[in-house]
Write a structure and sequence with these properties.
Elements lengths: L2 E5 L6 E4 L4 H10 L7 E4 L5 H13 L2 E5 L4 E5 L7 E2 L1 H4 L9 H8 L1 E5 L12 H9 L3 E5 L2 E5 L8 E3 L5 H11 L5 E5 L5 H12 L3 E4 L4 E5 L7 E4 L4 H13 L3 E5 L7 H9 L3 E4 L3 E5 L8 E3 L11 H8 L5 E5 L10 H6 L3 E5 L2 E5 L8 E3 L3 H13 L3 E5 L2 H4 L5 H7 L3 E5 L1
Parallel strand pairs: 2-15, 3-14, 6-7, 10-11, 18-19, 22-23
Antiparallel strand pairs: 1-23, 1-24, 3-5, 4-5, 7-9, 8-9, 11-13, 12-13, 15-17, 16-17, 19-21, 20-21
Helix pairs in contact: 1-2, 1-7, 4-6, 5-6, 6-7, 8-10, 8-12, 10-12
Length: 419
């Protein structure tokens, strides 16, 4: 099993280019099921979850041309697709459940495995299923599969999500594009990745309109258009590199981003004392003399993202004073803390709040990643730790970061993948 070997103490400086967003690419790929016209998706991140979604689309019958060099994919549904999404493809990828909405809307039936992914909480799909039931679907769960049918097709209606859910919002948006009549969605997630999905759907001919901050009006359509779309940048990867530079007292130019859609993250980093120069398509991060403590609560967008919580926690171990993180999105997202403690971090947990004591020396150790963002956190800790750090189970890391060790190496890190 592959692992990363990191020798700490090297500055992360220079220039790095951020990849396209995994969390945007996955729902867009799932939504291509709706159309029989050719779609071209650009700025595809070469990460494991995206490759798994491409495999899933291939298995159900989509014709796919994937140009890895240009990070571009062409999809053309020449024939009727299969409506079965097997466990072996969904067991490692939460977003696989996003094929449920479009398959059900297009063909009136779907059998989709309950998804896997990171063990950061229960993340039930009940919000997805209840919304589809309200649209006329009959759903049962049997032997680990969601079995859904809508013999008369899905019917547009008014749906208010009981809580903000990115996945449920995306799934029902896609399904509503083929539903009969009009659908109104209330209490939607409106992360940049959700907005990117909406922009793609508009390009292929869907009728979608934002009404206020968290509401969408969608009118079902029968015909689609061929379209080309470039995926938005990965703001979580950008935030991870900000932390890497700040931890090591480096100066880093981070390209291929739009800083306007990551204001909460940048404001939090500035509050900690980081100097961030904002330009139109890039930022430059430089270290201040002192890293300040901060109190953060994770929230749905536009709040501070839960996907960056583990990474900023490493920076907090180097701050002056005591910082806190309150995790409000997932109930089990502190699994990286025992590994940080093994490196010498002083962190206390009470309920969903972590108290991080600053000015702590981190020591290299052998570590085991438990999920995608935890693995990034441990790599960051290794960059600033004494001596050598080994991070095991980096297949988690590969699910969402495109060759992160190569990008870090080019910016000065002493890091190597071991096979």
């Amino acid at each position: 099993m592959e692992k990363l070997k990191i020798t700490g103490g090297k500055k992360i400086s220079g220039t790095v280019e951020v990849s396209g967003s995994k969390n945007s690419t996955l729902p867009i790929l799932a939504s291509t099921i709706l159309t029989n016209k050719k779609t071209v998706i650009k700025n595809i991140p070469l990460v494991r979850d995206v490759k798994t979604m491409i495999d899933l689309l291939s298995v159900i019958g989509s014709s796919i041309k994937f140009n890895k060099k240009e990070k571009k994919i062409e999809i053309f549904n020449k024939k009727k697709l299969k409506t079965f999404a097997p466990y072996y493809l969904l067991k490692t990828m939460r977003a696989g459940v996003l094929v449920l909405g479009p398959l059900l809307a297009k063909y009136g039936v779907a059998k989709v495995s309950l998804p896997g992914g990171c063990a950061i909480g229960t993340r039930p799909v009940d919000i997805h299923l209840k919304a589809l039931e309200k649209m006329g679907a009959k759903i049962k769960i049997k032997n680990g599969y969601i079995i859904a049918s809508a013999k008369k097709g899905l019917i547009g209606c008014k749906i208010k999500f009981p809580k903000i859910s990115v996945g449920a919002t995306e799934n029902i948006i896609i399904a509503a594009c083929l539903a009969k009549g009009k659908t109104k969605l209330i209490n939607c997630a409106y992360e940049p990745e959700v907005k990117d999905l909406v922009e793609f759907l508009k390009k292929i001919g869907c009728k979608i309109k934002w009404v206020g901050l968290r509401s969408l009006d969608i009118e079902g359509v029968k015909k689609f258009k061929a379209a080309s779309h470039e995926v938005v940048f990965d703001r979580i990867e950008a935030g991870t590199f900000i932390v890497a530079s700040a931890l090591t007292n480096g100066k880093l130019k981070i390209k291929n981003i739009n800083h306007k859609i990551m204001s909460a993250e940048i404001n939090s980093f500035k509050e900690m004392g980081l100097k961030i120069l904002k330009k139109r398509k890039y930022i430059v991060v430089s270290h201040s003399k002192k890293i300040k403590s901060i109190n953060i609560s994770t929230k749905p967008y536009p709040g501070f993202p839960t996907d960056l919580q583990a990474q900023i926690m490493v920076l907090m171990t180097k701050a002056n004073g005591v910082s806190t993180i309150k995790e409000n999105v997932f109930e089990n997202r502190f699994m990286h803390i025992p590994e940080l403690r093994r490196m010498g971090a002083e962190i206390e947990i009470k309920g969903n709040t972590a108290k991080i004591f600053g000015n702590v020396k981190l020591n290299g150790a052998e570590l085991t990643a438990t999920d995608l963002r935890a693995s990034a956190c441990l790599v960051l800790a290794g960059l600033v730790a004494t001596k050598k750090t080994i991070v095991h189970r980096i297949y988690h890391l590969d699910r969402g970061y495109e060759e992160i060790e190569k990008k870090l190496f080019k910016c000065g890190a002493k890091i190597k993948r071991l096979r």
